[in-house]
Prior knowledge:
By secondary structure, this protein is α/β, with parallel strands linked by helices. It is built from 19 helices and 14 strands. The protein has helices at residues 9-16, 32-44, 56-64, 66-72, 90-102, 116-126, 141-145, 152-158, 163-171, 175-191, 195-198, 203-225, 231-242, 251-258, 262-274, 303-310, 317-334, 380-389, 417-420; strands at 21-25, 48-52, 77-81, 108-113, 131-135, 247-248, 278-281, 297-300, 341-346, 352-359, 362-368, 396-400, 406-409, 412-416. It is globular and about 65 Å long.
Amino acid sequence: MDLINRSILPLMIPRMRQDRILAVTGARQTGKTTLCERQLPENMQQAHAYITFDDPEERLRFQRSPLAVLESLDAPLVILDEVQKIPSLFDPLKVVADNNARKERMQTFILTGSSQLLLVKSIRETLAGRTALFNLHPFSLPELLGGDKAPLLDRLWAGNVSLPDEAKRLLTLSPQETRRMRTIRDLHRKWGGFPPVWQREDETDKINWLKDYRKTYLERDLTDAGQVADLDAFALTQKLLCARTASLLSVSEVARDAGLAVNTVKRYIHLLSMTFQCVLLAPYYENVGKRLIKSPKIYFTDPGVIRVILGERSVNEGAWYESWVFSELLKWRQRQPVEPELFFYRTSGGLEVDFLIAAPDRLLPVEVKSHDRATFADGRSVETFLKSRGDGSGIGLVIYPGNDIEEIRRNVWAVPDWYLFPFLKS
């Protein structure tokens, strides 16, 4: 498999000219090492030094004399991999970075870690104000498809696209290109985006890797992230939560089903979210007086991981598809010049919108439908939301896996996922 350019790279390079320390977090096996050791130095055309703290010998070397070792690294780019394994690194790193700044020495440190819990905590306590923080997700659909023209969702959010014109342009795509985009989309929806999955052709090899990944997470990664006394209880809680993906989270319900204390389940959810296994999505509040449901929704964001936790037929297709769309929205949001916020919308009166993309000056309501044909009924909640805004200037989207861009209600457009998210070819 050819090396895939990561969308995070153009975001990191300008920050390297401003910040002396960059931290890249993300789940294990998302490609942090490849990004930092290969792609980043090649793009910057800089010599680099690479040290991984997965190596016990390197951990011992740094523990004996961390300041001396850091000062001996004279490459302009220094990559320190899996830094959560050596918390004693951060104080001497602060000293070296500050000394470099005083001497006007141009040296950048890239830190990577698989536990947001430990890495972010150390940065906040020791390196606050000195570090730019990035998160590397598994492959997104745009990364896998390639292309050089800004994605439709980028242009929609910026307000510089005509959807009627885009509907005509979609019809000009060749059948071969349409099939290619839909085929890769289908594989991504089925297997998720972890790079090692895409390096394997055989489905049995893919599923075996995903099973090993989950086993490694339970037996190894949790040890790095925090103490879990009972791995079986944690694994059961993970399964119960995963079965609720794309649903409102009731901690007390999960605690009852798992036979655990509510506070234990809360701690497990915190560990899962800080190790990039799940994401909690907050409801949108327009004002405090509105009677909105306050519980978050929970999403497990990688379809392949969902598959091995629950088995193929254990998740409702609609919830599975909504979780996949949410993961693509997370990855899309990270690429924006100013990251918008993501919410869901639900009122006590029963109005529901799957997602709201929010900025101070605009809102984009998004409904998600897993069937191949978008209908008039699919746009009802989005149209109702737009009417409740009163200004009549906004549009809303229904994201679905079909073939056509079409206005299914006034200012509500159904757009195929495989055309909305990817970079397009000029």
